[in-house]
């Protein structure tokens, strides 16, 4: 049997009222008596009536929905961001449509195109690791679609952006390793053209400079897909461990890089931290349950989601064109555990 949603006509027929009276009562119009409003609203609730979103969007010229594109929902960082997004969006009467790029540029273009064709009111996006060409986003932005970037941003598109203080997070982790006596600290990063990779590398280099330790390019390796492909991590670590003077510590500058780095070291019988210390970026609660528990830089993911959504809704609901934009930078937190401590 085909599902048929309850309509205003059904309520009007059941209560012996006109459709216009029911419509006004549901909108809490001053033209309708309080008794009639109460009757209509209680009956509507009893039969699980919901307004038709298509009809509402035609009337308001809005879909009251926003699109969200992330690389991977299973990544704890992005799942926490989505929780933050939904905590604001639903309270403000907006639905959320989520797509995953899986770090693919082609997938991202398809996701964004599909969302735009479904008449979303605005877009929240963290660009994929493969994305170097931003034309698909620039066109939509030029056409007037409100867009807010979070985490992985596009500097050349003038709009609101929300990020973590990546440089400070990497600096704190590197300084911690240096203060614990490590001197050959490798840096394992994502695609080198990404903003987060550049910022985290800068924080690492600044911490070395403060301790007057020369920057060694051979200790820096990049994984284009940010650790999602285990073979990339393996190739990078193979190269590091083949150096005449091996690293005594590793800073993994992305969530998947951190966990796959630990997996590689354990698989190859390399003890952490006895043989090599390890610190990384991760928002997973499981990092404290691993053996050894991991030292991590945690990002304020939930707050990133909330802040980005508030900014997007401001753009959507603005009555005049917005010409001034903010780049919100939230602090990271270093959580020190056994993986980076000398015994």
UniProtKB/TrEMBL annotation:
Superkingdom of the organism of origin: Bacteria
Keywords for the protein's UniProt record, in alphabetical order: DNA-binding, Transcription, Transcription regulation
CDD domains, per the entry: HTH_LacI (cd01392), PBP1_LacI_sugar_binding-like (cd06267)
Domain HTH lacI-type: 6-60
GO terms, molecular function: DNA-binding transcription factor activity; transcription cis-regulatory region binding
InterPro entries for this protein: Cro/C1-type_HTH, HTH_LacI, LacI/GalR-like_sensor, Lambda_DNA-bd_dom_sf, Peripla_BP_I
Family matches, as Pfam families: LacI, Peripla_BP_3
Gene3D superfamilies in the cross-refs: 3.40.50.2300, lambda repressor-like DNA-binding domains (1.10.260.40)
Keyword Aminoacyl-tRNA synthetase listed: no
Designated name of the protein: LacI family transcriptional regulator
Domain named HTH cro/C1-type: residues: 7-50
């Amino acid at each position: 049997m085909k599902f048929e949603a309850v309509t205003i006509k059904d309520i009007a027929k059941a209560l012996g009222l006109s459709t216009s009276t029911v419509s006004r009562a549901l909108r809490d119009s001053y033209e309708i008596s309080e008794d009639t409003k109460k009757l209509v609203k209680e009956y509507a609730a009893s039969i699980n009536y919901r307004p038709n979103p298509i009809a509402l969007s035609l009337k308001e010229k809005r879909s009251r929905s926003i699109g969200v594109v992330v690389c991977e929902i299973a990544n704890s960082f992005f799942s926490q961001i989505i929780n933050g997004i939904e905590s604001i969006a639903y309270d403000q009467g907006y639905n959320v449509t989520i797509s995953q790029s899986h770090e693919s540029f082609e997938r991202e273009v398809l996701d964004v195109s599909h969302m735009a064709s479904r008449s979303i009111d605005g877009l929240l996006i963290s660009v994929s690791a493969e994305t170097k060409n931003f034309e698909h986003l620039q066109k939509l932005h030029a056409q007037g679609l409100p867009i807010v970037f979070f985490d992985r941003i596009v500097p050349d598109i003038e709009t609101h952006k929300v990020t973590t203080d990546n440089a400070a997070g990497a600096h704190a982790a590197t300084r911690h390793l240096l203060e614990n006596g490590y001197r050959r600290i490798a840096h394992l990063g994502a695609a080198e053209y990404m903003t987060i990779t550049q910022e985290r590398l800068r924080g690492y280099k600044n911490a070395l400079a403060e301790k007057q330790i020369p920057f060694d390019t051979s200790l820096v390796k990049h994984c284009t897909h940010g650790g999602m492909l285990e073979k990339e991590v393996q190739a990078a670590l193979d190269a590091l461990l083949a150096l005449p003077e091996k690293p005594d510590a590793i800073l993994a500058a992305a969530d998947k890089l951190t966990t796959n780095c630990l997996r590689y070291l354990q698989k190859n019988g390399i003890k952490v931290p006895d043989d090599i210390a390890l610190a990384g970026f991760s928002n997973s609660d499981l990092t404290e349950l691993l053996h050894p528990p991991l030292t991590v830089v945690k990002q304020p993911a939930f707050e990133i989601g909330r802040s980005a959504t508030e900014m997007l809704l401001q753009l959507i609901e603005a009555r005049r064109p917005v010409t001034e934009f903010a780049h919100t930078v939230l602090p990271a937190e270093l959580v020190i555990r056994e993986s980076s401590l000398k015994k």
